[in-house]
């Protein structure tokens, strides 16, 4: 908003105020000065400021409102304009005029005024100069008066050609009402564009005929022109949310609607109409005015707030007059003075150091709590007059159970080569997972549904990663998912999900690339649970809602030892992998976070043993057995016969080929021997190996290789 300091000077005294000091006061008071303009208007040199205010300060969107703010910041008493103190000559008419009950919805104030004998719409020179100083063009017609009133009072009045309305309606009597448009109503606006209305759009009607879209724009057939001799003036206050909604639906935003979007108050609406009549009467002494319509005004209530001095000291802190030996705070008299400068009604209780404050209706939206009043005190007193100090933290917060659990999970997954991902919880409708929970008012089609699973987003991220020529994404994510029950109630749960697979990393450059097998993927998950010391067992899974995501035969449910279901792990569906151009050896998992967290809390304290100081001896053992023999049975047999120095068994290789008998498999195991009491001799380990070979032959009918 561009404001002329010469115009402001008519309301408060700026003669002794330096420009830089004024700018500093406005900036610290919450009004950013974006630019300083020096211009020549007529023969005068005028300084203007480009000032922007916060969205919740509709009271400062006019010269009157901003002058009140400047008066408070500069500790001055603002002057009152003549028309604001004069008694309107329509007071008798107001008593006899029936209240229009049809103009109440989404409207807190509505005045209709007819004006006849308009012979001269030329705007006065002084008015034109103020418009030019405020950055507006001069049109020398009724538009100048319209723009001037918006600048001075903040109220956007709408003008209609009364004679045209009489002619259009074929009636000398006009009944004004505010109602919803009928469906598919075509409306030609005064910008020569046609808009298709619906029953969600409010319109101002004359005898049931729309003459304007409420609070936005008038119709082309009723709008005033330079030839207008009789006027119908509309002064109204519409609901801000309703105006914003209508503007979005129509794709239309005007200067008038932008004012209503800031939530105007009807405090001086009638006075602004009186101001317009007094301006128009300067060049039209025979003007005849009559109140035509008035609605029941919504009472703008004042708010009572109790302010405690100790709370003010706690929030604002010491002032700059503080010394090393003595801390000083803002005085109660300074607080009372600041509140009076803001034109609040104040009652001070000096015994209890409390204030009872009555907030004026003009500020009843941005000042509703005690902390809001304290902010106003700091703003008027000057935030730069308070010391800037960091808070003295006496105690450090503790990590809650959820955070500690995530730390453990994250550490275990990072150790397995995963990366943590963070994605948006709102998604679009997916064809392979039916998201039935849709939002009523989504931001867009891509954010129209709540996710039922983290897996679709992980698949999409992996697809995008591969499209850009990157390697297979191995990641995990914490997040909330949503589901509905038979009663259509929505429940929210936290899960841990991840994706990995594709080509296995090479151990050296000469190796050929191989895909991660199902057993290797399963082993990775088992290692995750082993790191967390959580015992689990696996069962084949009959696919339900995930049937379009997981492989029918390569998917398992994972359970705790107490029978609680942890989650699901499986290979991607070949059909979905083909659609997304992903490797078929892609693996997915999704676990219930709360169940895993509860299990971690129930786990007994970990008992550590001292690390052996003696070296390890590593030996390989290769043999051929029937493939029907489980690895668990082989492992159990070797541990039982491997003596106490056999510490670990690892499967290095499994091979089936032409050199291996049918229905048999070749296994290569790595055996790690280590003693807690002595350095092992190779001869002792070899005797153990020979014994194991003999046992494998006898018990499993194995053939030893090499």
TrEMBL record:
It is found in: Plastid, Chloroplast. Its EC number is 6.1.1.20. Its cofactor is Mg(2+). It is an enzyme of class 6 (ligase). SMART domains: B3_4, B5, FDX-ACB. One of its GO terms (biological process) is phenylalanyl-tRNA aminoacylation. InterPro entries: aa-tRNA-synth_II/BPL/LPL, B3/B4_tRNA-bd, DNA-bd_dom_put_sf, Fdx_antiC-bd, Fdx_antiC-bd_sf, Phe-tRNA-ligase_IIc_bsu, Phe-tRNA-ligase_IIc_bsu_bact, Phe-tRNA_synthase-like_B3/B4. This is Phenylalanine--tRNA ligase beta subunit, chloroplastic. It comes from Kryptoperidinium foliaceum. The gene is syfB.
């Amino acid at each position: 908003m561009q404001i002329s300091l010469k115009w402001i000077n008519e309301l408060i005294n700026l003669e002794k105020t330096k420009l830089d000091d004024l700018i500093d006061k406005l900036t610290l008071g919450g009004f950013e000065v974006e630019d300083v303009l020096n211009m020549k208007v007529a023969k005068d040199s005028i300084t203007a400021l480009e000032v922007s205010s916060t969205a919740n300060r509709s009271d400062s969107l006019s010269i009157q409102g901003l002058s009140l703010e400047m008066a408070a910041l500069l500790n001055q008493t603002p002057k009152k304009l003549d028309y604001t103190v004069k008694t309107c000559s329509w007071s008798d008419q107001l008593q006899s005029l029936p209240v229009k009950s049809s103009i109440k919805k989404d409207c807190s104030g509505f005045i209709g005024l007819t004006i006849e004998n308009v012979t001269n719409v030329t705007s006065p020179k002084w008015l034109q100069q103020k418009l030019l100083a405020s950055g507006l063009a001069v049109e020398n017609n009724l538009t100048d008066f319209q723009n001037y009133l918006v600048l001075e009072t903040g109220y956007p009045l709408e003008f209609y050609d009364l004679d045209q309305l009489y002619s259009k309606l074929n009636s000398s009597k006009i009944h004004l009402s505010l109602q919803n448009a009928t469906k598919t109503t075509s409306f030609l606006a005064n910008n020569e564009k046609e808009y298709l209305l619906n029953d969600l759009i409010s319109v101002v009607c004359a005898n049931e005929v729309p003459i304007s879209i409420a609070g936005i724009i008038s119709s082309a057939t009723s709008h005033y022109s330079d030839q207008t001799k009789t006027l119908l003036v509309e002064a109204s206050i519409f609901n801000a949310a309703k105006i914003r909604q209508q503007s979005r639906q129509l794709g239309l935003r005007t200067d008038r609607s932008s004012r209503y979007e800031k939530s105007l108050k009807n405090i001086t609406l009638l006075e602004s109409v009186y101001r317009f009549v007094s301006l128009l009467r300067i060049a039209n002494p025979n003007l005849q005015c009559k109140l035509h319509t008035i609605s029941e005004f919504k009472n703008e209530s004042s708010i009572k707030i109790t302010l405690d001095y100790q709370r003010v000291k706690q929030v604002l802190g010491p002032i700059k007059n503080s010394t090393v030996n003595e801390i000083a705070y803002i005085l109660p008299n300074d607080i009372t003075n600041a509140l009076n400068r803001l034109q609040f009604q104040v009652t001070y209780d000096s015994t209890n150091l409390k204030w009872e404050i009555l907030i004026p209706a003009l500020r009843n939206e941005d000042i509703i709590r005690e902390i809001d009043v304290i902010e106003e005190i700091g703003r008027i007193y000057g935030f730069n007059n308070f010391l800037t100090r960091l808070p003295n933290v006496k105690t450090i917060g503790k990590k809650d159970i959820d955070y500690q659990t995530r730390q453990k999970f994250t550490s275990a997954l990072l150790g397995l080569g995963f990366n943590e991902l963070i994605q948006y919880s709102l998604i679009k409708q997916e064809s392979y997972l039916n998201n039935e929970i849709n939002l009523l008012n989504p931001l867009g089609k891509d954010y129209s549904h709540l996710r039922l699973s983290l897996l679709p987003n992980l698949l999409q991220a992996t697809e995008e990663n591969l499209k850009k020529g990157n390697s297979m994404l191995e990641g995990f994510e914490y997040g909330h998912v949503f589901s509905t029950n038979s009663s259509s109630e929505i429940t929210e749960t936290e899960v841990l999900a991840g994706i990995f697979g594709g080509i296995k990393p090479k151990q050296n450059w000469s190796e050929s690339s191989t895909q991660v097998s199902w057993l290797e993927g399963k082993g990775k998950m088992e290692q995750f649970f082993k790191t967390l010391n959580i015992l689990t067992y696996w069962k084949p899974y009959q696919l339900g809602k995930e049937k379009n995501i997981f492989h029918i035969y390569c998917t398992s449910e994972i359970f705790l030892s107490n029978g609680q279901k942890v989650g699901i792990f499986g290979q991607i569906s070949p059909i979905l992998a083909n659609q997304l151009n992903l490797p078929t050896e892609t693996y997915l998992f999704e676990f219930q976070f709360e169940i895993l967290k509860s299990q971690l809390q129930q786990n007994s304290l970990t008992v550590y043993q001292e690390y052996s100081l003696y070296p390890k001896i590593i030996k390989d053992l290769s043999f051929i057995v029937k493939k029907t023999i489980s690895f668990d049975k082989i492992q159990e047999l070797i541990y039982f016969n491997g003596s106490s120095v056999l510490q670990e068994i690892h499967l290095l290789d499994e091979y089936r080929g032409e050199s291996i008998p049918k229905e048999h498999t070749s296994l290569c195991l790595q055996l790690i021997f280590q003693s807690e009491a002595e350095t092992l001799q190779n001869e002792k380990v070899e005797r153990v190996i020979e014994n194991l070979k003999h046992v494998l032959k006898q018990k499993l009918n194995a053939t030893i290789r090499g």
